[in-house]
Amino acid sequence: MASSKVDGPAAASGKSEFRSQKPKPENQDESELLTVPDGWKEPAFSKEDNPRGLLEESSFATLFPKYREAYLKECWPLVQKALNEHAVRILQDDVACDIIKIGSLVRNKERFVKRRQRLIGPKGSTLKALELLTDCYIMVQGNTVSAIGPFNGLKEVRKVVLDTMKNIHPIYNIKTLMIKRELAKDSELRSQSWERFLPQFKHKNVNKRKEPKKKTVKKAYTPFPPPQPESQIDKELASGEYFLKASQKKRQKMEAIKAKQAEALSKRQEERNKAFIPPKEKLVVKPKQASTEIKIDVAAIKEKVKKAKNKKLGALTAEEVKLKMEADEKKKKKK
Q1: By C-alpha distance, which of 227, 222, 176, 172 is closest to 198?
Q2: If you ran DSSP here, which 8-state letter would residue 312 be given?
Q3: Three-state secondary-structure class, residue 273
Q4: What percent of the chain has pLDDT over 90?
Q5: How far apart are CA 63 and CA 61, in angstroms?
Q6: How far apart are CA 149 and CA 265, in angstroms?
Q7: pLDDT of 55 higher than 80
Q8: Handedness of CA 319, 320, 324, 327 (dihedral sign)
Q9: What secondary structure letter does DSSP report for 216?
Q10: Phi, psi torsion values for 137, nearest 5 degrees
Q11: How confident is the model at residue 20 (pLDDT cuts 50, 70, 90)?
């Protein structure tokens, strides 16, 4: 009994020491865990490492009609030939696989379908570009994304898929991968930081909420209650109508009604008279016509005639001039 009492606490203390000595998991980034150093190669896996061969063999079964049995037996070698390439690739030493679960990353079903389609792209163009840049085979199906390829390529594929489901368009990551691919060709830049060459995309969160047309302005807070509205009796007391007789009140109401009627009648009459008021005529400005009359300078014409006559007279003799003068005088007298 004594030995059992001593062993009990000793065993318990041993368990507590074992629990305290367990290594605590450190908070490491996934990118650091997936990073593979340059030039690292996994040791080759040969038949000597596994002389017994594969321990498990995958199998599946499906029902089909009996009349299709002959056709399936003929086609089965072609199916095996097509599948052999994929099975051989995954068993290579420098090839690994990764299955990314994306179903739980987005709650809204419609939003999830849109982002998954964004990853595939129009006619699968985005997925094809990602496959060429990462040297991986990528398959998007349902709530998972599976990839087969080298370790560095799988790391980039996982990053692009997770960013796409976080509403970051894959084209940004594809541009970054293209720049990295060109920089890796330069041997001098391999040991330097590439941050200065990589594009920095800022996430613009635009608020699409429409503002209301009528904005209500909140009044300043006051601890006092609002003033009580005046009743009809209070208004009559203030104006003095409360002390009037019933006949006087009736007379005041009739006067007020007649005043309103007269005002409405005058407005109606003004609107009717508007139809009889002639509109203001616009002043028509006639365009200035070019004067067709030609101003004749009589004095200048006379001088020209005299000069012409003198020239002719200079050429004639004195006798001829006298005869001509006499003939001109005769003509004047006849007129």
Answers
A1: 176
A2: H
A3: helix
A4: 27
A5: 7
A6: 93
A7: no
A8: positive
A9: P
A10: -95, 125
A11: very low
